[in-house]
């Protein structure tokens, strides 16, 4: 039995919560009385409550994020009904800023801000029986170099089965209005030698998959170089994920990135828009020449796999402008282009645009935009389906030869928009569509514009590049099963990137 349970609902089983491990690491003399229990969204909330309460905790600390806020609200209600004497403490970005748009009224305490110190102080007072804390605790920024680091609290199970989340910095120097990171523009860094010592300990324990949560990994070049050099010296395979700004790749950094072999390096590249007027409206600094040059470099001279972010629904950006952004990015990069829908997070300053641009958002998580003065509700719904189909067809890497036919005239946005409209009408769904059904839909749609055997050959090569796939039945009448579709062997970790470079 444990007095303190730390828990959250991760978005995937392979994810792990760095925040919970920070809380555990900083519980001092209370640490032996605490345990982490992690779950996954879309699990039975009652079963989660049952497993937590089976530990007979006096305090439950729950990390709340945009993806789990609704489920956490329900979890809190069940826990307090079943075990009203158990104290529930909420923390995390989703409860750190007002307004709270999910009902957390039954929680006993809410910690707003960084909780490493505040959570310990609260637990100590509660367990001592003399708590004087207010229900809402506004926690100040912690001294990043004074708190205990969390990396020893990754278990051997975590290291074997999950991504290991790490951070060398907190804050972001930019002021993009849609992002919570823009609230703290002053950067705080952990001493690089201390940080690399922690990474080395994880490495010695077998960790090989590291996801850096630093918002701007390449803003401080000396630190970025030290981290890249550390991993380049390793002889074994590994996977690294960094969030990078697209306009800061000096030659010294380029020389290092070029040395990483395929499958090792994934870069999250925040673009959001290429429209300078829109960027200015949301206080996002764009250096287009540098962005274009760096995307070209990363695509043509490195093995780094890229996730390039674009947003639909930004204030003052029309669908036509978004379409031009997508068309241009398609020509600039071989990476995935992640099409996101604008969300209004509590704590950001996006609401200053609401009246000017008629911005209307969903009140429930994920607080996505419903319409604005340039994009109607119906069109926004079309674009949400566009984003979903784009992800499962283009970003999946499963149909690169086929989509090349779809985009052969350079009208990437226009052609995929027409296809996504047709596909939704044809499939009546955006989820649980099998690879073979997608292939058949692509064949059916493209048959009106291309030679059927040409389309069939492209689809066959795409489908058979996926390990374990069988010859699609609908193609057997068009192409003999003896067709030579031999493909290069591609490692699973880097299949998408390899296919785009062939």
UniProtKB/TrEMBL annotation:
Residues 2-133 form the B12-binding domain. The keyword Metal-binding applies. Keywords: Iron, Iron-sulfur, Metal-binding, S-adenosyl-L-methionine. InterPro entries: BchE-like, Cobalamin-bd, Cobalamin-bd_sf, DUF4080, Elp3/MiaA/NifB-like_rSAM, Methyltransferase_Class_B, rSAM, rSAM_horseshoe. Its cofactor is [4Fe-4S] cluster. SMART domains: Elp3 (SM00729). Residues 158-387 form the Radical SAM core domain. Gene3D superfamilies: Cobalamin-binding domain (3.40.50.280), tm_1862 like domain (3.80.30.20). GO terms for molecular function: 4 iron, 4 sulfur cluster binding; catalytic activity; cobalamin binding; metal ion binding. The keyword Protease does not apply. GO terms for cellular component: cytosol. Pfam families: B12-binding, DUF4080, Radical_SAM. PROSITE patterns: B12_BINDING, RADICAL_SAM. PANTHER family: ANAEROBIC MAGNESIUM-PROTOPORPHYRIN IX MONOMETHYL ESTER CYCLASE-RELATED, SLR0320 PROTEIN. This is Radical SAM domain/B12 binding domain-containing protein (DUF4080 domain).
